[in-house]
Amino acid sequence: MKKADYKWIALALLFVAFFLHQGTRQIFGAMLPQIQGFFGVSRTEIGVVGTIFQLAYGLSLPFAGLAADLFGRKRMVVIGVAMFCGGIFLGGFAAGVGTLALAYGLMNGSGQASYYPGMTSLVSQLHSDSRATAFSIIQCGLYGGILICSTLSGWVAGWSAEAWRIPFWAFGGLGLAWAAVLALALRNTQPPAAAANVPARPSFGEAMKAIVPKRSMWLLTFALGMMIYVDVGFKIWTPTFLRDSFADLAPGAAAMHAVLWHYIGAFCGITAAARVTDRFAASRRGIRMEINALGLALAAPFILLMAKAGSLPLCCVAMGAFGFFRGVYDSNILAALFDVIDPRYHATASSCMLACAATMGSAAPTVLGWIGDHSSLRSGFSSLALFYLAGAAAVAVARMFFLEKEYVKK
Fold first, then answer.
1. Backbone angles phi, psi at 301, to 5 degrees
2. Is residue 129 part of a domain?
3. All residues at 6 or more sequence positions from 127 whose CB lies less than 8 Å from its CB, including other chains
């Protein structure tokens, strides 16, 4: 098989895995009211499950990225998919919040972290001349996975008091089967050749020495942390927010509206922005960061409108516009990072960035749950606009003051 053909086959295999990677996250939020009611706990207590997931994900990422660089990216991709889908499957047997936190939170979060760095490094290498387009296709797996898994899970959860267990078993079992497909179909693609007299596999110390001084990387990391805080809180609590705000909305409809309009907008935004940046990146090296800052800044007003909307149609329009500009930002999250990181350290750098950002965003499920218990989810959602504005400011600083000094010529 030609290399040009294989890179698209590999992208398709990883797309399905990322579909499950992101879609299985959303089944918890889509069924949150049913799970909370079944276990008889407060919003703060059930929010802790989401926080444990995010912490497990964030704290596992540095080790996963280093393992991908040192021990093989295919191996970590397969292990990661088997692990997080195993956690999802076992989550269907949870007897309480504690066991759900262990399966969905700890095992699923660690497995998802194990998958991600190796996947991003493989895509970046195989699609070096079409990076933003390839990452945007992968990102569409996120949108599709969240939309389909959320809608189906919300619908199934309304069947009976314990029907929320079914999506955990169904999607978890499907993912375990896909791990076997990846093990058979993916190649052991070797990392880019190093320069003469340079070891092919970098040491941990060498990787840290190369990426830690990059000030633009840490500003991009802060921006991603702000985005993840909003994203995690939004994905987990929006079905509940919609049912609180519009009392006649059925559980399945709430799960659908919570993701449909937002991710249709995100798909449009990421598709348009990826084409623009891939076209002009060679002549304007700062365009990736400029697109990132623009997406975050323009999304903020629509987050506030979503939180304040007095009708479901207006809320859905706001979620769609928020999604469009979120997609604009998503189109160059990793592409912008890789502009300032040597290719040999892409997996380690992306894992460190995501680890810090995921940890920064981990408090959102619990914080929004606490606000929901003591005030209202409308108040919590209104505060999310500030996080996007803070992220936009950080990217703007990176672009204006550090990109030219830290840019890595390919």
1. -60, -30
2. yes
3. 7, 11, 133, 134, 135
Distance CA 301, CA 269 (A): 16
pLDDT at 200: 56
Residue 182 and residue 191: Cα distance in Å, rounded?
18
CA distance 241 to 234: 9
* pLDDT > 70 in the chain, percent: 96
Q: Which two tokens stand for residue 215?
A: 């000030």
Alpha carbon distance 143, 267 (integer Å): 7
Full domain range(s) for residue 338 = 3-187+202-406
- The Cα–Cα gap between 49 and 103 comes to 10
Q: Which amino acid is at 332?
A: N
Residue 182 lies in a domain: yes
In a domain, 192, yes or no: no
DSSP letters spanning 313-355: HHHHHHHHHHHHHHHHHHTTHHHHHHTTS-GGGHHHHHHHHHH
Number of domains in the chain: 1
| CATH code of the domain in which 94 resides | 1.20.1250.20
Nearest alpha carbon to residue 73 among 207, 201, 206: 201
Helices 215-245, 312-330: axis angle to 10 degrees equals 160
* pLDDT at residue number 102: 95
The predicted pLDDT at position 1 comes to 57
Write out pLDDT tens, residues 181-192. 999 999 888 776
> Cα–Cα distance between 304 and 129 in angstroms, integer?
38
Residue 196 counted as domain residue: no
Model pLDDT for residues 61-76, shown as the tens digit of each residue:
878 877 887 788 899 9
- How far is Cα 86 from Cα 67, in angstroms, rounded to an integer? 20
**310 three-class SS:** coil
